[in-house]
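Structure ticket #2291
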Amino acid sequence: MRARKRLFIGLLALGVGLLSVLVIFAVYLAINWEQPLNRILLMILAFLIVIVLGIVSFGIAGIVLTIWSARTIPSMQHLIRVTLNVLFPICLMLGRALGFSQEQVRSSFIEVNNQLVRALVRARRNNVSKEKLLLLAPHCLQNAECPHKITLYPDNCQRCGDCQVADLLSLRDKYGIKLAFATGGTLARRFVQIYRPRAIVAIACERDLASGIQDANPLPVLGILNQRPSGPCFNTCVDLKEVEEAILYFLRNLGINETLRGLAAPAEKYKEKRKWKGKMDKSIPG
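Resolution: structure written out below.
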C-alpha cells in the first residue's frame, strides 16, 4: 500500500525542527564554554547549521507550495532538489525511530517526487520528444522460467503472454519510446548514459526507485511501484494502465494532434476493416 505524501513532508518538517534544536544547543554550549577556541568552533558550527536550515526551510516551502498549487516554482527548483537530497537520509532515520518502515518512507518520497515532476512537466512545453523518453523496467517482470533473456536485448521476448514484458514492448512500439530492462542500479545508470533521455518512466520497488530518482537528478522521473505477489525480485508485475498514463503525461507536450493521431490510428484501421467486411457481407448472396 502506498504511503501518503504527508508522511514524507511531515518527516521533512521534523528534520528541520531537529536541526533548529541542534543550533540552539550549539549556541548554548558556545556561550557557556570556557575555552575560547571551542567557543569559536561551536559558533562556526552553529552558523553553518543555520545556513543549511535556511536552505532546507525554503526548499520545504517550495515543495509544499508546488504540491498545494500543482504548479512549479522555477526559482525554487534547485532548493527543492538540495532539500530532498540533504534530508532524505534523515527522514529515513526519523521514520524508523517513529515506527515507520523504510518502504513506507520511500513510498511517500516517491509520491512527493511524482507530484513535483508532474508540476514541472505542466510548466514546460515541448521539452520531451518520444525518442528522448526512456521506460526503465526491472528484469524481474519477466517470467523466471523463461529461457529468452531480455536484459540487454528486449526483443528476445517471444511475446508468449506469460509475463508483462510483451505488454511493455507493445507500449514501446505504440509510442516510439525507448525501453530497457535493468538488473540493478548499476545497469540502470548505464542505460541512462547510453540513451541520454530527457525524462524517465521507472518501474521498480521502493528502494530501487528512491535511489534511482536521486541518482537521475535533475532528470524528471515518474516512479511506478511494482507489485510482488511472489516476493521481491521474483515474477513481479506492474499496473500497465499506470505505466501508460505516465508515458502519456510526458508525451502530451509533443503536440496534441500528433498524440491523438497515434491513438486514433488503431481505431481508424478497425473502422476500415469493419467497412470492408460490410461490403463483403453485402456481396454474398442470401
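Closing remark: The two ends are 59 Å apart (CA to CA).
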